[in-house]
Every structure is written in structure tokens, then in C-alpha cells.
Amino acid sequence: MSLSERIGLSVLRLLDPETAHGLALRALNSGLVPRPGPVTSPRLSTSLAGLTLPNPVGLAAGLDKNAAAVAPLMRTGFGFVETGAATPRPQTGNPRPRLFRLNEDRAVINRFGFNNDGMEAIGKRLAKRPSGIPVGINLGANADSDDRISDFVAVLRCCGPYVDFATVNVSSPNTDRLRDLQYGDALSRLLEGVMDARAELPRPIPIFLKISPDLNDSSLAEVAEIAVSTGVQAIVATNTTVLREGLRSQLRTESGGLSGVPLFDRSTQVLAQLYRLIGDRVPIVGVGGISSAEDAYTKILAGASAVQLYTAMTFAGLSLSVRIARELDVLLSDNGFKNVSEAVGTANR
Predict the structure, then answer these.
(1) Contact status, residue 111 vs residue 94, Cβ threshold 8 Å
(2) Helix, strand and coil percent figures for the chain, each rounded to 5
(3) b/e burial code for range 168-186 (CB count within 10 A of at least 16 → b)
(4) Per residue in 47-83, pLDDT tens?
(5) Is the four-CA dihedral 119, 121, 122, 125 of positive or negative sign?
(6) Exposure pattern of 58-70 as b/e (b: 16+ CB <10 Å)?
(7) What is the CATH number of domain 3-343?
(8) Alpha-carbon distance 216 to 218, whole Å?
(9) Is the Cα dihedral 314, 258, 308, 28 positive or negative?
(10) SS3 for 40?
């Protein structure tokens, strides 16, 4: 981490977390953040659901909800970027404060509740993005919607022509009853509706499904079976958790989804179990608690074809993506892998 980035992070930590988040996006757009471009090598270059990635380290949804800084984010070292979540109508989300730094735990709790500018505004910004690494949209539903399946379909139809993939987010704990869509017939109907809408796009794009780390074994098996049968192109494992075991921060009692280092073990366990269920039939994107190249490598060995991060950058800066990608290249080389795809699931077979 450079001295300027270290100073910038120190300043941001003095501010309310949501205010700091907004300032970080402005810094990106103003050119104050270095833009080294995607990190790549023959060993890091890979594919995910038909998408060509310069490296397997992606940005998770949530940092750039409104696709307001997608162009500079495409140049900060990531192999792919996910924006959103987007809902059909703009919504303000839950009351502030709704974002909390748990410094002692290197974690964050958020209860944003899908605050965003709405699909039309986000779609217009995505339509203007430059070419380059793959960019996706996280699909959401309005909190007061009477038909959430139609909401997901609407966002895909609006934004789908301007992105390279779309993620069905039924695992956020911050919208009431949203996680009910993770189960059984409700999930089947949702994914069938989304896949039908995908087929109508000018350019059918891969559909990802983002799942919760709080699923029990039988629910995870059911989700895996439905994902395979409906033709989902990738599963994102996992979203944030509502569990709070082992936290030290006084803010641990705040409601919302917990992300960061404490999520790593649980999310990796779910990832490994999911890989044992589906093998190579559907690729997995590993998310949750990644803060180093070693963490990314562990997810890949457990079964992830690619990884995403977000929370760790709160504590280590945006340059973390570059460091992880470069150090992951070294780890793969040291362990005899000519390409990252060779390492996927090798500790879990």
C-alpha cells in the first residue's frame, strides 16, 4: 500500500462509514486513485461461465451500487466487476446509520436495504461504460413489491443489454422476506422467469445465483439441484451472514449482514460443500472474508473458479486487488499450476 493510500484510508476512517464510502467513489471518479489496469498473466487468465477474465479476482456487488464509478473501477486491477444491487424503482433503503465498521474484527455490518437509483438510471450509466473487463449487474427487488419475481425480470430486461453477466440476489438479509426466495418452488419459479427473460435479450448473458452462508445442509443441496436444473451459469457463494459468533467489537449487536474476516471460514465451508454437490457442472465464485492472496487461493482449492472481494478494501485500500492478483500468480507457480483453472477444487476432490 502506498503512503498516499495509507493517508487516505486514515482520513476516511475518521468519517461516518457511509460518508467515507461516498467520498471513495468520488475519489475514483476524480482520478485520485491509481488505475494500473487489469493484472494478468498466462497463469491468471481464465474463463468463467464463458466470460474471459484477465485474472480471477473480481469486485463484489455493493461498492458501486449505482454504476457511478464503473469506468475507473474497471482499471483498478480487477478481473471483473459487479455493480448493484439494482431494483426496478429507486429506493432510499433503510434508515441511517446502516453501515458499521467492526475494526477489532476487520469486519463490516450493513443493513442498507438495496438503496439505489433504480434500474433506468443505472442502465443508462452502464450503457456508457467503456469496453474492457466483464461487468455485471446484481439484480434486486423493491422492498414494497408485491411480485418480486417480476422485479428481478424487469431489472434484467432493462440493464441486461449493457452488461456481461447478471446475478440473482435472493440472499441479502436486509430486505424483509427476500431470503424466502432461496427455497424450493419459489426459487425454481424465480430462476425460470429470469432465464426466460435472458433468452429474450439481444445477447443472452450468463446468469449467476448468489446464495446465503446461513443455509443448512439440506437447503444447500436443494439450491444446488435447482441451480443445475434451471441452467444457471454460476453460483456465487456467499453473501453476508446474520450470525455473530466470536466477534469482539461492541458493534456486533447491530442488525444486518456481517462481512469480512469472520465470514471467511463459514463461506468457504459452504463453497466446499457446494463444490462436492455440483462438481464441475456449474462454476462457483467464492466470496466472503477474502483479504489476502492466501485466502483467494484457499477458495480456489476448495472449488472456486473465481473470487470476489469488497469488505477487506475498507481496511487495506483499493490496491488490495492488485496485490492479491500478483501474489496469487506466485502461489499458483510455487505449487506447480500452469493456470488457475488447474487448481480449482484440488483440495476438495
Answers:
(1) yes
(2) 40, 15, 40
(3) bbbbbbbbeebbebbeeee
(4) 999 999 999 999 999 999 999 999 999 999 999 999 9
(5) positive
(6) bbbbbbbbbbbbb
(7) 3.20.20.70
(8) 6
(9) negative
(10) coil
Cβ contacts of 290 within 8 Å, gap of 6 or more: 264, 296, 299, 307, 308, 309, 312, 324
> Hey, where are the domains in the chain?
3-343
Whose cell is 486514515? That residue is 10
Residue given cell 427476500 in the structure block? 178
Q: At what angle do helices 293-302 and 264-278 cross, to 10 degrees?
A: 30
Just list the catalytic residues: 172
**Joined grid coordinates for residue 257:** 449482514
Contacts of 47 (CB under 8 A, 6+ apart): 53, 341
Query: pLDDT for 10-59, tens place per residue?
Result: 877 888 999 999 999 998 998 877 788 889 999 999 999 999 999 999 99
**167: which strand partners?**
138, 208
Which element (helix H / strand E) includes 325?
helix 320-334
Cell numbers 448468489 correspond to what residue? 210
Type and span of the H or E element at 221 = helix 217-230
Reference 121, options 151, 71, 86, 170; nearest CA is 86
CB-count exposure of residue 276 (10 Å: 0-12, 13-18, 19+): middle
Q: Could you count the other beta carbons within 10 Å of the beta carbon of residue 216? A: 8
The closest alpha carbon to 254, from 33, 101, 80, 103, belongs to 101
